[in-house]
Design goal:
Layout (H helix, E strand, L loop, with lengths): L1 H7 L1 H6 L1 H14 L5 E6 L5 H8 L2 E7 L2 H11 L4 E4 L11 E6 L12 H10 L1 E12 L1 H6 L5 E4 L5 E7 L7 E10 L7 E10 L4 H10 L3 E8 L5 E2 L9 E7 L2
Parallel strand pairs: 1-2, 1-4, 2-3, 4-5
Antiparallel strand pairs: 5-12, 6-7, 7-8, 8-9, 10-11, 10-12
Helix pairs in contact: 3-4, 6-8
C-alpha cells in the first residue's frame, strides 16, 4: 500500500504538503515551542519528520505501517528514531516538547477509542509542551470520501478511489484500487487494493477528550482545502479543524 498511496497523493504531497506542514510547525513556534524534542504520531513515510527537522526539532516518529516506515527510513536515514505503533496504544517513551498527529491521523480512530487516543498523545507531551493535530470536518466526508474518482501517475499507474458504504460505527469507507502495467504481459495489469476508514469527531467530543487528558486548549482554527488557515472554523468552507493544546 505505501508506495501506491504516495503516488495517489503525489501532486498534493509534493506541492502543497511541505508548505502546510511548515505553517503548522510555525504555529507551534508562535505559542512558545520553537525547538527541542518532537514526536510525530502517524508519521507515515516521514515527510512530516523532514519538516520538523528543518524547523530545528530533534524529531522521532511512530506509525503502525511497516511499509510506510520502510519508506520513511529510506528517506530519513538512520539518524531519526522510528518505532512501529499506533493509537490508542502508543509505546512508552520520553516526553516531547511538541507532539504532532498530522494529516487525518485522529480521524482513523473510532469514536469509542477517541478519549484513549487523545490521552495517549497527551501523555507524551512534556510540561509546558504542545499537542498539535488536525481533524477532518464534515466537508471532507461529503466531498473526498463521498465520491469515486480516478487518477493517473507518471509511471503509468491508474488509480481508482471508490467510495463505499459506511461501517457499523458510522465511519466513512473507501477503497483505493491501483492498477500497475504488467511488464511481462503488455496490455495487462496487476491490481493492489487498500481499505480506508475515517470517522468524523465533532468538535465537542475533541474538546471533551482534551479536557479529560488535562490539556489546555489554546486554539481551534479552520483549514481550507485550498491551503489557507483561518482563525475561526466555518463548517461551510473548512475541510479541517486545527487543534493546538498545551500541557500545563
Amino acid at each position: 500500500m505505501a508506495p501506491d498511496y504516495e503516488a495517489f497523493v503525489g501532486d498534493e504531497v509534493e506541492n502543497r504538503y511541505p508548505q502546510w506542514l511548515a505553517g503548522l510547525i510555525a504555529l507551534a513556534g508562535e505559542h512558545g515551542v520553537t525547538g527541542g524534542r518532537a514526536l510525530d504520531v502517524g508519521c507515515g513515510t516521514g515527510r512530516s519528520l523532514v519538516a520538523l527537522g528543518l524547523a530545528g526539532f530533534e524529531a522521532a516518529g511512530i506509525d503502525p505501517s511497516r511499509g510506510m516506515m520502510a519508506i520513511a527510513r529510506e528517506r530519513l536515514g538512520d539518524g531519526v528514531e522510528l518505532e512501529v505503533g499506533g493509537l490508542p496504544d502508543l509505546p512508552p517513551g520520553p516526553p516531547a516538547d511538541l507532539v504532532t498527529a498530522f494529516n487525518d491521523i485522529i480521524n482513523c480512530v473510532p469514536p469509542r477509542q477517541l478519549d484513549a487516543a487523545i490521552a495517549a498523545l497527551a501523555a507524551r507531551v512534556a510540561p509546558g509542551g504542545i499537542l498539535l493535530f488536525d481533524a477532518n470536518a464534515p466537508l471532507t466526508f461529503t466531498s473526498f470520501f463521498g465520491r469515486t474518482f480516478c487518477r493517473t501517475a507518471p509511471d503509468g499507474r491508474f488509480m481508482v478511489w471508490e467510495s463505499i458504504e459506511d461501517d457499523d460505527e458510522g465511519g466513512a469507507r473507501a477503497q483505493l484500487h491501483v492498477f500497475h502495467p504488467d511488464p511481462e504481459r503488455p496490455g495487462n495489469w496487476t491490481r493492489s487494493r487498500s481499505d480506508h476508514v475515517q470517522y468524523h469527531h465533532p468538535d465537542a467530543c475533541l474538546r471533551a477528550a482534551l479536557a479529560a487528558a488535562e490539556m489546555e486548549l489554546v486554539l481551534v482554527q479552520g483549514q481550507r482545502d485550498s491551503g489557507p488557515r483561518d482563525p475561526d472554523f466555518d463548517e461551510e468552507i473548512h475541510c479541517k479543524r486545527i487543534y493546538l493544546a498545551r500541557r500545563p
